[in-house]
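Page 37, top half.
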Amino acid sequence: MQAYFADPCDGDVVDNIYVIGSRIALSWGGGTPSAVSSVSYGKDDNSKKDLLDFAVDIPELDVDDTEEFQCNSEGNGSVAAGTAFFSGNPIDVVRGIKLQWESDYKSGHRLPLRVNRLYRSDVTELALYGKGWSEASLPSLAHNAENVISIAVQGLVYAFYYDGTNASPLNSLEHGATLELLASEWSFVLPGRFRARFVAGSQSALSYGRVIQVSNVTGDTLSYSYSNTTTRLPYRVAHSSGSQLNYNYQTLNVSCTGSECNKVVTSISTDQGTWDYNYDNNGRLTEVISPTGVKTGYMYDSSHRLIGRTNDDGIRVRWWGYDSNGRANLSRKYGNEEEVTVTYSSFYSSEFGRTVNQAQVNDEHGRVTNVIYADDALGVPRILKNQAVGDSSCPSAVAEFTYEPDTGRLASELTNGGVLATYTYDVYGFPISRTETASDIDTTQVTRSFHSQVWGKLDSETLRFDGQDQHRVNYTYCTANNSTCKVGLPTAMTVTDLVNGGSRTTSWNYTVNGNGRVTKVEEISPTNVKLTMEYNDAGLITRQSLNNDVQLQVLSYGAAGLPTSVQYENLYKVNTAYNNDGQPTQASYQMLDGSSTLTTTYEYNNLGQLVNVVRPSSQTTTGESFDYDQNGRLITRSLGTWVDEEPPLPPPPLPGCNPWEPTCFNEL
């Protein structure tokens, strides 16, 4: 998920903003710039990515790539998109709640099997993984007394009004989604992406609304099996490839309201092994054990709120705290590292002519950011202003926001640099223009159109500056599934210079196997450079070639999808071993002509921090060691005996995963 909002100091782009709310996505070039309803400060590098895809239009936020509010070398501060980021674990400061997203398992399929858990500190009822911990990957259909039907599928939530005959979207943001009652089931379709089927029939039946099957446009399916007609809890989820998730449940001796409300998951078997879940007498999740035996523990206060997380050695590595009103106000890592505190207040603002709320955030650098927010007419909290307080080394920074009253979509943002950005949308809620104006610069406008056959894909994008079109980008896509393409994959991108004339085109060719898996991608650039990437059935790269010259081959992968043997050109091969946390423990470099083999080992402490790198004596330095203070912060890095003036260059990095396939392509 990307946010394209100008930094008030230097115009940088900030990525991966955590926004919580009802189908909210702050994005430009991939989503809808929508309401800034809430902001989570920080990241949790132990959440295994996947944070908050339940609540946004763009699934799979990468929590490892969030940016901090900081000053650059010139002392320029930044606040972007109604938020500033701080390291630490995520807190929704607008709602005052602690959020914890855990992705235990995800298969390597185009439509993946998932095991996701979500913790919310404002939820104390028993859920599938104990108090406050809900299942976040199971599709659902809910039908209330007002005949509003809500669909939650793979990180997307849609709402419809059912008049007894037809189901109509409640607003224009539903991106073409349809819901139909077909015999004994509901059929939900999101064009160009997927279809989901749910049980219909009598609304009083416990099975009403439970998911039957989810399928995507390439024919992958997830089928859900139940032990009887009176349960909503599946015992099996099967992928069309044959892979399965098998669930086991336990009934806890804990009082709750509703049928099956005291049932929790005790184990889930996957193709990588079994995950186990343990609970205390209060129904709280206390321990998760991975298939490799790695343990993660959770700690709670007397109000059943999550206050800590422990690693495999039982060492507490995360702390969270709450104020007297139960609002999350503290987040820090092991040894007071990356501590963030939040203070909440309310006051009358003459600027906004109403009572507003404020969350004052103090980060680990001692900097203060004030987040001012209030409910809109729809009752949804919207951030009105973000103000980073300046100091001697970092000036202040401000960002202000307005919203469309009927939809809550972002209408404008104003930075303290005087740049005003305004947005317009089409009838489906897609952003079709972004216009920047300022008193001291010319007006910049980006206009967009969307493809008529491939839903949600850009057809063209035009940049206008000072009243004149500068360049246009046109896109073409596959519109059918066959052996050379799949629906929605780009086939060409043409950039045209509208001022000086001329254009350049980049094109892509594909090879698709009988299972609909992309096994080869060829990118042909305007300079006649051809980059070819080949993949196995799990979507993992096996070969990369440049103009038919092999640059690398991955000879083998481990069980966790980590490369264990890689050959670079025709020069040398690298064999790598890993520990249970996926960290490399040994790398052996073998020249293909047999002239030498060099082995490097890596050692870690009980917190998973690298402490030693040991290299052969024949290398330029025999190794490195790393020391940390009592707070777990790196304080010294020591190099071994130098033989030369420069350290050795690292081996060429392994390219990223297949952007068209499961490990990278997270949308359905």
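Page 37, bottom half:
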Amino acid sequence: ILGEIVSLLPTKEGARTQTLASRWSHLWRTAPLNLDCRDLPADDDGILLGAFLSAHEGPVHRLCLPSRHLRDRAAAVDGWLRSPTLDNLQALEFYLDTPVRYGSFMHSPPASIFRFSSTLRAATIAQCHIPDNAVEMLRFPQLQKLELVEAKISEGSLASLITSGCPALESLLLKTCGSFHIRGLRINSPTLKFIGVFSMFVELIIEDAPSLERLLHIILHVKMRLTVTSAPKLEMLGYISEYADSKMTFGSTSIQVAIYVSCIAFSRFLSDIFFMSREVTYQLYLLMS
């Protein structure tokens, strides 16, 4: 029980349990850990993380690293990910901690992430370039949650990643991927239950998504055409646009936006939950054909 308590604590507080009592001193070294660099001093996070992974005797289930390390410490990141402590890693997050400059060079995720193909269930990839040849090799059969933040990836590769690379995917969040030339996306997935789009997409087509329950597009000032061909379980639609030529099509029914499309927008961009509830109401003017 004590080991489970330690595993639920933030990294810094978990390490401090060694000073509580003699019976707690060994727990930190063997407890399953969730290592989050946001809990560490920014200047020393790389040094401390390396020390943790070298000294820890138990498994690490979740690892969160700032995406800048892919640029500044690429070799070190690759080495960390090869640590035996991470053999059963279930969640990997490269989180965005610095502003993205459009046109800046982006590194690809290290090759060592492929070794988590049989264990990884949740992933956040931020400020990375995911080339087509890498997507062809990506296979994460257990992955259920995927978040791409400021990621550079082609439309074809993104569709392939959703369809064949992650066959168990249930939650997908795309945040400003459109800044890197993704102008549209076609979804075919038997497992997806949630899609969140905070991006500059021009067109989103849901061709076949029998499990989809929530589809949220959360940008006020971007025109977008949404087509839903088959999503029989869709219950929540969070789509907001102020452009008059935005259009939604459900089967054979088209909805043309005259002024605003209004709905309840549930938007939460926590990577481990993938949505939060925030109510936004606008006036609704619809023309149906």
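Margin note: The chain is about 20% helix and 25% strand.
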